[in-house]
Amino acid sequence: MNQKNLDLCKGLVKSSYIDQATQATSQYNKLVESLLTQRRLPDQGWSDKVIELFLEQVSMMDSNNFVENIGVGEREGRVFSGLVQKRHYGLSHGIGRSGDINEQQPKAAGSSLIQKLTNYLVLDAMKIAGFESDTIPSCLVLPMATGMTLALTMATLAQQKPQAKYVLWPRIDQKSCLKSIATAGLVPVPIENIVVGDLIKTNMDAIQEKISQLGRENILCIFSTTSCFAPRAPDDIVSISKLCKQENIAHIINNAYGIQDSKIVHNINQSCRQGRVDAFIQSTDKNFMVPVGGAIVASPNKDFIQAIGKNYPGRANGSPILDLFITLLSMGKDIWKTLLDSRKSLLPYFTESLTTLAKEFNERLLDTVSENKISFGITLSNLKTSTPPSLIGSKLFSRSCSGSRVIDLSSNKKNTVANIEFNNYGSHTDHYPPGSYLTIACAIGIEKQEIDIFIQRLRLVLKKELS
Amino acid sequence: MNQKNLDLCKGLVKSSYIDQATQATSQYNKLVESLLTQRRLPDQGWSDKVIELFLEQVSMMDSNNFVENIGVGEREGRVFSGLVQKRHYGLSHGIGRSGDINEQQPKAAGSSLIQKLTNYLVLDAMKIAGFESDTIPSCLVLPMATGMTLALTMATLAQQKPQAKYVLWPRIDQKSCLKSIATAGLVPVPIENIVVGDLIKTNMDAIQEKISQLGRENILCIFSTTSCFAPRAPDDIVSISKLCKQENIAHIINNAYGIQDSKIVHNINQSCRQGRVDAFIQSTDKNFMVPVGGAIVASPNKDFIQAIGKNYPGRANGSPILDLFITLLSMGKDIWKTLLDSRKSLLPYFTESLTTLAKEFNERLLDTVSENKISFGITLSNLKTSTPPSLIGSKLFSRSCSGSRVIDLSSNKKNTVANIEFNNYGSHTDHYPPGSYLTIACAIGIEKQEIDIFIQRLRLVLKKELS
Amino acid sequence: MNQKNLDLCKGLVKSSYIDQATQATSQYNKLVESLLTQRRLPDQGWSDKVIELFLEQVSMMDSNNFVENIGVGEREGRVFSGLVQKRHYGLSHGIGRSGDINEQQPKAAGSSLIQKLTNYLVLDAMKIAGFESDTIPSCLVLPMATGMTLALTMATLAQQKPQAKYVLWPRIDQKSCLKSIATAGLVPVPIENIVVGDLIKTNMDAIQEKISQLGRENILCIFSTTSCFAPRAPDDIVSISKLCKQENIAHIINNAYGIQDSKIVHNINQSCRQGRVDAFIQSTDKNFMVPVGGAIVASPNKDFIQAIGKNYPGRANGSPILDLFITLLSMGKDIWKTLLDSRKSLLPYFTESLTTLAKEFNERLLDTVSENKISFGITLSNLKTSTPPSLIGSKLFSRSCSGSRVIDLSSNKKNTVANIEFNNYGSHTDHYPPGSYLTIACAIGIEKQEIDIFIQRLRLVLKKELS
Amino acid sequence: MNQKNLDLCKGLVKSSYIDQATQATSQYNKLVESLLTQRRLPDQGWSDKVIELFLEQVSMMDSNNFVENIGVGEREGRVFSGLVQKRHYGLSHGIGRSGDINEQQPKAAGSSLIQKLTNYLVLDAMKIAGFESDTIPSCLVLPMATGMTLALTMATLAQQKPQAKYVLWPRIDQKSCLKSIATAGLVPVPIENIVVGDLIKTNMDAIQEKISQLGRENILCIFSTTSCFAPRAPDDIVSISKLCKQENIAHIINNAYGIQDSKIVHNINQSCRQGRVDAFIQSTDKNFMVPVGGAIVASPNKDFIQAIGKNYPGRANGSPILDLFITLLSMGKDIWKTLLDSRKSLLPYFTESLTTLAKEFNERLLDTVSENKISFGITLSNLKTSTPPSLIGSKLFSRSCSGSRVIDLSSNKKNTVANIEFNNYGSHTDHYPPGSYLTIACAIGIEKQEIDIFIQRLRLVLKKELS
């Protein structure tokens, strides 16, 4: 309530009580003031109640919620269902304008405000996670998942170098990466990885060679990947960045869930300082525990971020931004740090538990943890002859363990994705000597108790299926 | 947002858009101002969005929601479950203080404000329904249903006339009425009604006689009933009031769902003007379409209302008051009037439909509609010998028709309630010549379509069970 | 979804995915089954999502939510406002029937189910807190706060011994206790306490003497109090119970927030075993962290609990029961135990912090902690002459510390409550030698961080106001 | 509850009440069954309560909500904030898989089910609006607004005809249309419209000529527009379709808000039957009153719809699909038809009101209503010399009228959009003889009362600004 109405309350409730309430209202207003001026994660997360009050107030700034609003246009933010209106706090105009996804809506000052603030909060959260100021002078939060965002990013690059059709792509067996290149109307050029011990690593020589072969003027960019399933290592982005700088080729990093890994963050900082990085893209859901649907494009180059924003045609859905906004306000700096720290500290616990378990069954943890700090795997060398490797995965799933993946290398399967044929698709390489394996991840939000229960359930499954 | 924060938004969103949003915020503030100053139903109901924003703001005035609150008492309004907190908008201190249910809570200025405003809104809604200003100079909304509220009202009366134990009670066969007398530690004295045509009416002579017999000094009050199931008519409260005035005996009216009936309202006005009425009690759910749990005590005597408030020991649940507050804001004057008018105008439609249906089966509408404007009935004279009357009721209920009641007068049953034995309990009289019947009500909120479907379903039931 | 519909989903979504989902549905069904059969707190609390699904399903069992329902009665559970409906999950019929608050509603099987289950869960939670099976064979959860519930309990007692008007009441300076006696139409007979060291204790001799004086046949009951503000100790209920048994006088214990104190619980067990306890009443909000509005009447005597239920006239609001139901499901056994343990273990931390602080200012912790395990106090002996004691309280409140109370014994004030005059009302005794003091409580739900901040704020206040 | 648990309830609540509740549960199950088997809008909309119960049940089918779920992958649908989880009903896995946005998620059977059902419901709603079965054998609901969806559609077309870079584009001055072509990496070729009377119409000759000039093999498609701001008419899509068929050029129709206009729908049917239409794209928010963020791609060619789905890289946000799902279930067939009919019938009311108003000020309604059935305009010929036309728009906006647009043709402005220079951008043509004007729309969801208030407010504005 504004001061005038608070004063009017004194006609109804004792003056001294209202004075106290007024003071409380100003505690709330100070929280908001601090958000609007500092534009950083609050030190301590806001309560749900405070968040909802703020959202109710902000959404009143959108024209469709004006008490006296009359809409005589073709798009007036009318919402038929009360359930739908409620779940969006009355925000219905989305974000952006026809010209630019970053442009503010005259009809929707509230939505515009949330979009702006979310950008600031994301930047702050990324800095807390280790990104340096020069690495991320600005970012763009898009209401599209990483695949489509990668496509838009490359499409924007393509407008700047229209003749260059090729995208050099160190193989990563995740379909949407490859498809994003095709969606942008470009031609993916796979670079086969090399196997070193248990690790699958970037083949820098092959990249260099391919540049010579195709001609740098025909290459739009190198598309590298950091966070990925073991036994693949994150790409050697520092070397790639240096090469890109030297060859004057753009460099896009798919950093889907890399914000949570301080080593990857460090490497991105290095890459931006020492080489060329045009953009790095991360998933909102995989890093910030929101529902699927958003991505963050960041870049050391502010202008390129702007260009992407301007290349987005029309308005967009504001829901993923709202999710992120609520989440970051709710986490605050404290819990965000705790989540990052907790994931990091559970990693050795998880891999040790798995090492112990693997030993019980004469299997072993793949030796990849030095490089890949999120995903890791154990061998599946001693399966009963009657047990196809994939059965381990489906048995785990039917025991309510989701997210583990079995790579069956027992036969030499071929797959075609985006018109390219791959051997052993899913394993990131044509031939992986250690054979079939099971991968697991230690991702943000996981809890110790989950690890313990997973190990128990995996033990039961292995007991039955290993000879 | 307050003006300062709105201005700060201009650092993030275009100044002109924020100016527009500021204007919208002030539209909202004007709604609130109007509520706080006029304290009447808004002409048009508030949207859910506006209501929720207001509740979020008001609840921030309660200490348990202060951003910086520390609670070191034994009752600090802590709420464990987020679901529970949300459903009460963070309001958890209830209403009242140990001394008086109407007293304001220092810890809960917001809850106190809602209680106060609800009182005003209820008074306004009752005036719109026809109550005159002198009839209801004040009222008390209690978070207890009518039965317990009647008990508290009589207990308060009893403190003023401690030796008087008797309550004269024109028979109304609804258990909680009778029990409320016993709960208050008093002795009910039933007054048998008289049957006139199809109607069951107040026996004024019997009341007069009972007063003489017991002695007015031993009689605490007469407990009359307005809204009731046909074929009972509302009590002749005008005559009772005059008698009470003349005999200096208190008069309590159970007006459970009488607000919706303008004839009853008119009679209460008359009674207050010409006779003695100490209090009349109405249900919140039966009149205002909120969940069960509240009652309104009104009186032409302000002091008595205050005495009841002071007699309530301790705090009370605020939930029924909140329901009423939300509902009245949401209805506004417009819809509240429409609901009253619509019920009134559907009454002839319903009774005509029922008359027609009854004729089809050689039954008839009981001739009570001139007096009882809410409940009415049809005879059940031609049931198959194998069909007990109650079967009609249970068949209707199993066809998802709730609320109809069958009174089976085929045998002469005796029941004991609160230690008093009754003949044909449920029919309000020892002997009702027209025999068994089915009652139905045309209550607030009913829709034409419901009437049509009910008639259809009833026809199907009667077809099978009437000979 | 039921099995048939799950199977139909296979026409839309892959059969194996639906099979997995079916299995998940049955995990949920097993939770429900376990609740319905074991009727105890779940070992681990249910998630909000599971609770809401369950409530949505249960509320579909109430007739007002039947898809095909037609209501033709005077009370059909119609809810005007979507906000109101939502916040009650569509439950609108309240609880109880006219005859008995414990009776089931034919129109509201779902509400009835929740009421029943809540009773079982409360019994289980109380047993976990230490109550023995013989102490609580049954209980009644009422949607009224403790004051009104005490009144109803005594009113029910009074029906069994109508001539006995006196209630012996060891003085406890909390208005609603005293007023509950008056509301029930009874006469409170205060028993002045005795001061022993810093403690204010039950005067057993005075009770005994008063019984002789008034005659046991004229005494309805002794009304004792456990949980209370320091420096008053919980009444010596074991001695009182023995006396009641010996004198054949009823005994009602006001155990408002005593469930959280294992010592009080132990004493209630002892009292029930060795003496006479007719009922003990506890607040739902003070013990279970729900909004104000409910109370639990328990008794070793099942029949008396039933009698109270039957004495409640009419239906009642279901909201406080729903709050408790949600809360207990959400807590589960684990968290409920943790909350009890945590409060207990924070008590020494709090009193030690306070002792240290008091020393800084030449004040001292009142020596009451051996007896009163929830509330405690420090002296206010060295206030500046310009500082009235009450200023400490209001300064704390304006610093967002709620719940501390200052008892100003600097002048000898007289107050009249329920027509009885008291010296130094608020201090539980006519004369308390240690002088003015500040009380604070360590109540369930308090967190260590709150204690630390409170101590800081109190230090700042004392610094200014102590000489 | 399943049958077993319902039966278990009989241990707690009377058997006959539970039987009744079981019957009610089966009424609900029948609604669901009907949805799953008929896959059409329910005849009558579902209540919010039923919708929420269904969503709670369906979301339990997603693995992140399994009671016993353990997530050990990199994306486990964890949701940090309870507010976020609640607003998505626990659905967090989005839609689609890396390979195909239409593919089902093994981890998310519930989300997949909703996506599938939404597709069916949208098809049904479109058929009710007049689309013939052959026009829409299938559709794709994408969680991107129309601009980005148009880009994806053209990018998909481009993969089939990689050498063709040109998109013939009858000028429509709405930025996102033009930009969508550029985003897809294609070259827009504007076709200037012709002015006929007040109408701005498709220049078929110019299109024909441009095809000859550029060569059909170099033209990817014609991009036509139906719903648009007056005085532009919907493009002559029937002629364009015939031409496309004849020239073997693809045809994409931007039908942003055309579902609500039966004439446009009719023309699309005709176009599909008589000519070539590859896809027509419509906004979800502009037609179905949901928040901005979704679009529907439809096509008479099922394979092309599939190709677009497969071209979408990765998962996507499920929120816009959920909004649509809730909305269509809530509307039902009845209200959807009523909304369409009501808009249609308010059009003459609105234009007549405007005609009358215009006359008052010596202005006139532009004569475009015979062709454009949604948007219309009035001339602004008599403005005071001191009044720039745009002032009318901003004055209306500051009077809380949103959506009207002023086209200021008083000077001959030039704008560059997507590197193309336009005269009088916003007016769809280089030169519009009637001069400056104000446009207004009669869009779905508008109410008579809104029209009346708008006319009042416009009158006040014009009074001041017209000479």
Automatic annotation (TrEMBL), chains A, B, C, D:
It comes from Polysphondylium violaceum. SUPFAM superfamilies: PLP-dependent transferases (SSF53383). Belongs to the SepSecS family. Keywords: Cytoplasm, Protein biosynthesis, Pyridoxal phosphate, RNA-binding, Selenium, Transferase, tRNA-binding. This is O-phosphoseryl-tRNA(Sec) selenium transferase. GO terms for biological process: conversion of seryl-tRNAsec to selenocys-tRNAsec; selenocysteine incorporation. Converts O-phosphoseryl-tRNA(Sec) to selenocysteinyl-tRNA(Sec) required for selenoprotein biosynthesis. It is an enzyme of class 2 (transferase).
